Amino acid sequence: MDLGLILGPILLADVLNPVLLALLIYALGSARPFSLSVAALLGHTAAYFAAGIVVALGIEAIGQRLVNPKPGDFGIELLLGVALLVIGLAMVRGKKSQAGLDSHQEERTEASLLGAFSTGALVNLVGIPFAIPYFGAVAQILKADLSATGALAVIALYNLLYALPFALVIAARAFFGAGADAPLARLNDWLERASNVLIPLLLLVLGTFFVVDALHFFLGAGA
């Protein structure tokens, strides 16, 4: 399957980031709306790109082990799958529903470009453990057997496309002025609700896949 067809849906799921959007809306309401919002977006994108490289290097380092997995690896996969299912079910029941909202507290920072850049990076780094779509995208990029330069270029392109919708938010605020504030607030509310549905679903699907794959090994395929 074409890599773009695989990464497209992953990117659409990944871009549902209400925390980043809320951060940008907050910056756009400051005394220096555009410079601070651009700095925050650049900080977030730089951190995401760096995280993608780190994940890619980690996956590459264990790649040979994954080619010839051992029973212990499937045991870890089973435990991880169960953990994802538990987290996903807890989120569906509302136990985790405030996690994204609580992260909004990180939007408060001093009104400086460095502060905005650092806050954007921090918001990203705090959410890295939950960036399952992005990790999946990096894994698919590595599976495509590209050269190191090619894989790096695709990861960079993914990050640019990820940042594009948020850059358009800044552009809309610049074009429409304060008239865009109410629509942006409604967009943020919608995005938050959508992510509260999609993220648990992704956890449940991925957890189910891990559990089924591990059980398939232990109950027959690996015997």
Helix content: over 70%
> Separation of termini?
31 Å
Structural class: mainly alpha
Measured by DSSP, the beta-strand proportion falls in under 5%
Number of strands: 0
User: Radius of gyration from the CA trace?
Assistant: 19 Å
Shape: globular
In short:
The chain is an all-alpha fold and 223 residues long. The protein is 81% helix and 0% strand.
Structural topology:
Layout (H helix, E strand, L loop, with lengths): L2 H12 L3 H11 L4 H29 L1 H5 L3 H22 L6 H4 L10 H15 L4 H12 L4 H29 L4 H41 L2
Helix pairs in contact: 1-8, 2-3, 2-7, 2-9, 2-10, 3-7, 3-8, 3-9, 5-10
3D structure, described in words:
There is one protein chain. The protein is mainly α and 223 residues long. It has one domain (3-70, 97-187). The protein contains 10 helices and no strands. The longest helix has 41 residues, at 181-221. Mean pLDDT is 74; it is low at 95-111.
Defining key terms:
223 residues; mainly alpha; globular
